[in-house]
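Reopening this ticket.

The earlier resolution said the output was attached, but the attachment link was broken on my side. Pasting everything inline this time so it's all in one place.
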Amino acid sequence: MANLRDIRNRISSIENTQQITKAMKMVAAAKLRKAQQRIIATRPYAKKMRSVVSRLINGVDSDNPILRNPEEVDSVLIIVVGSDRGLCGGFNNNLFKLVEQKISEDFSDYHNENKLDLITIGRKADGFFKKRKYKVVDSYVGFFDDLNYETTSNIMSDAAEKFMKGKYDKVLVAFNEFKSVISQNRLVDEILPLKTDQFEEENSSNLNEIDYIYEPDDKAILDELLPVHLNMQLWRAVLESNASEQGARMTAMDNATENAKEIKDELKLKYNQARQSAITTEISEIVSGAAALEDA
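Inline output:
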């Protein structure tokens, strides 16, 4: 049985760890609240943007290159939204495994022929895919230290420009969608080419059609809104991922705190047993010594 000093040292170490995990849980909870507020504030705007773009796409015969729909896919780009920090359970690994599964099932030929490019957001995504020899053409380490719309829109604008020029024929975004504090939906969404059939379904669901007058004209407005709509798609993915990360970290730190409590209770039990054993041994030695003196 371990001596009393070793057990006391282990208990002290676990108590220090427990304090750290509690603090990390509180920080994650505060960041989660802020991330949820940003998502709630963004969703109405994104919904209305999609509605307007839907109406314009179905009512305008536009030759905007963003709307091109290539007959053959020659190259693919995947934007992977991970995190910069760990200690958030399976938040990153589960998403990265889904991306690898998607590549294996749908884009293995492109990967083997060096026609599959990745853009990684977050330090964890960058390290994971570079280590496995994927073609990472751009990476954004420390992205979530200063999360802002401008950087996100620059990433999406660059990807859209390369799509319009024909460098990429398909653009996808992989991210964790926030569902609740304890669960996330792992998604790999195709954002380019734009699926006009989905817009048609959304437009047909509006029963009360209103005839709008557009100024200067509907085509000019569509050309202006399409890039904004794409930027909002990536911005939403980034916000969802940020909220999911904080929720996953909060859950992981809460579990770590509870596990530390259980280990500390077990060690205290062992400490009491060892202390009782030591006291019993000392008493036995004293009694034996006293009996020896009497016999003498």
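Reporter confirms the inline version is readable. Residues 158 and 261 are 49 Å apart (CA to CA). The mean pLDDT is 88.
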